[in-house]
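Q: Hi! First time doing this. I have a protein sequence and I read that you can turn it into a structure. Is that right? Here it is:
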Amino acid sequence: MLSGTLDFYCTVNVNKHTSSSGLSENFIGNWLIMTDRKPLGADAIMALISPAVQPGDTLTMVDTPSLILDLDAFENNLKTMQALAEHHGVALRPHAKAHKCADVAQRQIALGAQGICCQKVTEAAAFIAAGVTDIHISNEIVGASKISLLARLARQAELSVCVDHIQPLKSLSEALVQQDAQMGVFVEIDLGQKRCGVQTIEEAVKLARAIASLPNVTLKGLQAYHGGIQHERSHEARYQASQAAAQHVQAVIDAIAKVGLSCPVITGAGTGTALFDVASGVYTELQPGSYAFMDNDYGQLEWGEGASFQHSLFVLGTVMSVPTPTRAIVDVGLKSTTAESGLPRPFNLTGVKCTGLHDEHTMLDADASVNRPPLGSLVKLIPGHCDPTFNLHDRLIAMRGDKVEAVWPITARGLSR
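A: Yes, that's right. Below is the predicted 3D structure, encoded as structure tokens:
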């Protein structure tokens, strides 16, 4: 009876007095009368959505999809990289673009990190607001609004930035003069990634001299990062590429020294080449980011015996469908993890592999000899690339064993200007 009555109201009233929302006011009113519903306000409706988890909960209580962190593995990774840097007398400045989380950055700094790297000005602002006071923006910043913000932030924290062209350098100098602020500047050199950076030694020298001649900026040194070689699978290939890069960096240092200028800081390196760059005698500062989490892409590298990093970051999902004896569908999709560096990998599920990733679904296929995960079970997925995966989540759930120890906000999520 109710269904037929509602169908009648849908038919009769839907075209009368259409509101700005596109729904008939008569229809809305009659719907509420016939179902005896008491409408809630928008805030009250959203309040019905409970948090995914609370500190003290267990893993089985976590609503999915959720981004979770194994604190034991995470802390081991932090200590391993910090010890590596200290053993060679090199500063560690982890890259916060990997996680965008102030709680992660603060723990890295507490262990001895020099500060952090950011990639964008708004990203840096979020970390400054959270109490981080030493930040290197390992990127070029162009545009009046961004440079103005950067100059204002320079009054709040120790900041440095990269340049590869005279125009934004002059604009930054002018903005800093207006703000009565100072900033360190690095000449970025292109080591073969074909992204940002000056292309020749002569350009590097010219830009270094320009920095030295302008007010309120100081030549800090060189930004020398080769992202392209970080993911070379072969240990030997990464070693050889990092050696060639270091030789070029040294040539730039020597050329700048010949014009009477020094480069006190040579910053760069990454997770994939840190073992080689730390011992090169060229780098004074390392910028690894993914080492703290070890995504699936980095997990496929040959690491040798220099250091051992563990998978600590996972996207937790629930098996939502088991349509065949060998297939399981998990409620994690492209809105919870990314696939540009490969599909996620199921953690500790022998004989089970990820075969597809759609907007809201991950497809897992099991070998005929093993059982696929049962309906309703939890699955940990190692993301293919940790950086953009972090940017898809509001919170990071920090776990000690199977217990939630803390829930950390992804402080700079979405701040990409």
